Each structure stands twice: as structure tokens, then as C-alpha cells.
Automatic annotation (TrEMBL):
Gene3D superfamilies: NAD(P)-binding Rossmann-like Domain
One Pfam family it belongs to: 2-Hacid_dh
Family named by the database record: Belongs to the D-isomer specific 2-hydroxyacid dehydrogenase family.
Domain D-isomer specific 2-hydroxyacid dehydrogenase NAD-binding: 110-286
PANTHER family named among the record's database cross-references: 2-HYDROXYACID DEHYDROGENASE-RELATED (PTHR10996), GLYOXYLATE_HYDROXYPYRUVATE REDUCTASE B (PTHR10996:SF283)
Single annotated GO MF: NAD binding
A GO cellular-component term linked to this record: cytosol
Protein name: D-glycerate dehydrogenase
Organism, as annotated: candidate division WOR-3 bacterium JGI_Cruoil_03_44_89
D-isomer specific 2-hydroxyacid dehydrogenase catalytic domain ranges (all copies): 5-317
Keyword Oxidoreductase carried by entry: yes
Length: 323
């Protein structure tokens, strides 16, 4: 019987699906991210691993999993897995694309609005009982109409994000490896070089996976190209942006603000970032809707079972594509 190890309990929808499978499974009993050593201790005689984006599935882990056939990530991003090592050993790797697209795109808009209309700051102001009456200049923000939205990466989530903004009257620029005909036809989006996008956009939103090529894609040089009135939104991966350079830009007022759901060294967040008032900070909740998390759980389990049954899992990944 196939032995499966889950590095953490996943939503009931996935556990139920797993229960229908005849294989024997074990769930890591703690409600916290598993460590590399704990993975190694648990993977010895396991054929299927269901893991999370917080889990370091390194070469050491993969080598310890001598009977491992499939690693099913409960996430669309899979930079936590050494895919090359897995591929070398013929171990399948899968992810959960599609099912969290809308949830993540919606959260990117929530961050964008929170920045543009200073929602978090205004809430704090109100709770602190500082609202003494309507004022012509109280908490003025940025209007979206006629502004330029810049997408760094126009894959599934970037596309959904831009399409959801159709009603706001913004112009859309994007940079990607490939032309995006859907965006071009539906909203007249223009594909430009990253440098041009950074110079022209009022709101820049990152939607690229983290790879060797996208690590610090936005560093000091790139951030210096942004308009002083620009906002940066990141719901992809923290390390796509050089966090130190971003903090400097925010501190020196070289950009107006940022909305971040992801960080370079999660779950650690730099004190400097926590102390800034021109940022909105969220705890990596892009896909945190009931629907998305249930579907992610079902998808991850379906991938896992297919792989263990000798079938090609629906969401097989290879070495990540780069921007
Ligand atoms: C993913 O699936 O990669 C997301 O970051 C989870 O929210």
C-alpha cells in the first residue's frame, strides 16, 4: 500500500478526497511549518509527499525519500522544491494552478485600493477618535481613472488581475516573455520592456514566479525608475523585489507606497518595513478564500493520487520557466 506523508493538515475537502484513497497516510501533527530535518525524518518509506510552500523540499529531503514517486505541492508556486533533484530521480512534482487565480487577483486589487485610498491609515485614524468632522483635505488619495497599471508578468494571475480592473478606466502595460493576446484584445493592453513599464506606470503589480531569473528582478536600479507617485503591489513572491532597496525607496519617499502580501524572508518581516506608514502589509493571504483553499486541497490530492496510481498527474511541473 502506498504510504503518503502530509506535511500539514489541509482543508477538509482534500482530507475527504484522501480518505477515499486506499493508501495509508500520515499527517505531520503540528500546526506549523515543518523543518527540513523533520521532513527527512518522516520521508524514509513514503511514496507520496503532499507539502506546502513553506516546506524546504531540498536535495537532502529528496535523497532521503528513497521510495518517493511524487511530490504534490499545495500551492501554485513551487520554488520551495528542488525540482531538478526530483526530476533527476524520476520523481514527479505537481502544483495547484488555476484554482487560486481569482482569489489572488482579487487580493492584489484589495491591496491596490488600500494603498490608493489609504484605507488602513484611515481606519486607524477613525479608531483613534481623530475624526473631528469632514474636511476638504482629509486623507486625500489617488484616483485610478486614467492612471497606468503596469503588470510585471502576465500569466494566469496577472491576466485575471488586469481583466478585473476593466471598470476603472486605467490603461494597462505589461511585460512578459510572451505576448498576451487576451489582454491586448480585451483591454488594449500594451506589451513594453520592463524599463518603460517602470517609468510610465502609476501602479506596478508583480505576478511572476520566483526563479533564478526573477530573484531581485526589482532592485535598486529598477526602483529608481519608478515615478515618485508610484505604488508597488506584490502578491507573487517577496524575493522578486530587493526588500532592502524597497525599504530605502519608501523611507526616502522615492515612491509613494507599497502593498505587500509576501516578503523576502517569510515569515520574518524587517522591523524597518513594519515601522513604515506608507506600506500596507498582509500575511501572505493571496489565496486565502474558502473556495480557493478547498480547491487547492482537492487539486493537490488528485495530483498525488494520479501519480501514485501510475497516471500522469494533471498539474505536472518541470523546472520553472523564467521571465
Ligand atoms: C501559491 O499557491 O503559490 C500562493 O502563494 C499561496 O497563496
Amino acid at each position: 500500500m502506498a504510504r503518503i506523508f502530509l506535511s500539514r493538515k489541509i482543508p477538509e475537502a482534500g482530507m475527504k478526497r484522501l480518505g477515499e484513497f486506499t493508501g495509508d497516510f500520515l499527517v505531520f501533527p503540528h500546526d506549523r511549518p515543518i523543518t527540513e530535518n523533520e521532513l527527512i525524518e518522516n520521508i524514509d518509506d513514503v511514496e507520496g509527499l503532499l507539502c506546502l510552500l513553506t516546506d524546504p523540499v531540498t536535495r537532502r529531503v529528496i535523497e532521503a525519500g528513497k521510495r518517493l514517486k511524487i511530490i504534490a505541492n499545495y500551492a501554485v508556486g513551487y520554488e520551495n522544491i528542488d525540482v531538478k533533484s526530483a526530476n533527476e530521480r524520476g520523481i514527479l512534482v505537481t502544483n495547484t494552478p488555476g484554482v487560486l487565480t481569482d482569489a489572488t487577483a482579487e487580493l492584489a486589487w484589495a491591496l491596490l485600493f488600500a494603498c490608493a485610498r489609504r484605507i488602513v491609515e484611515a481606519d486607524r485614524f477613525t479608531r483613534e477618535k481623530r475624526f473631528n468632522g469632514w474636511s476638504p483635505t482629509l486623507l486625500l488619495g489617488t484616483e485610478l481613472k486614467d492612471k497606468i497599471l503596469g503588470l510585471i508578468g502576465a500569466g494566469r494571475i496577472g491576466t485575471a488581475f488586469a481583466l478585473k480592473g476593466r471598470g476603472f478606466g486605467m490603461r494597462v502595460l505589461y511585460c512578459d516573455n510572451h505576448e498576451n493576446e487576451v489582454l491586448q484584445k480585451a483591454i488594449g493592453a500594451e506589451m513594453v520592456k520592463m524599463e518603460e513599464l517602470l517609468k510610465r506606470a502609476d501602479f506596478i503589480s508583480s505576478h511572476v514566479p520566483l526563479t533564478e531569473k526573477t530573484y531581485h528582478l526589482m532592485g535598486k536600479r529598477e526602483l529608481a525608475l519608478l515615478k515618485p507617485s508610484a505604488y508597488l503591489i506584490n502578491t507573487s513572491r517577496g524575493a522578486v523585489i530587493d526588500e532592502k532597496a524597497l525599504i530605502r525607496a519608501l523611507k526616502e519617499g522615492r515612491i509613494r507606497g507599497a502593498g505587500l502580501d509576501v516578503y523576502e524572508n517569510e515569515p520574518k518581516i524587517s522591523h524597518e518595513l513594519l515601522g513604515l506608514s506608507n506600506v500596507v502589509l498582509l500575511p501572505h493571504i493571496g489565496s486565502a478564500t474558502h473556495v480557493a483553499r478547498d480547491k487547492m486541497a482537492e487539486t493537490a490530492v488528485e495530483n498525488l493520487i494520479a501519480g501514485l496510481n501510475g497516471k500522469t498527474p494533471p498539474n505536472l511541473v518541470t523546472i520553472p520557466k523564467t521571465l
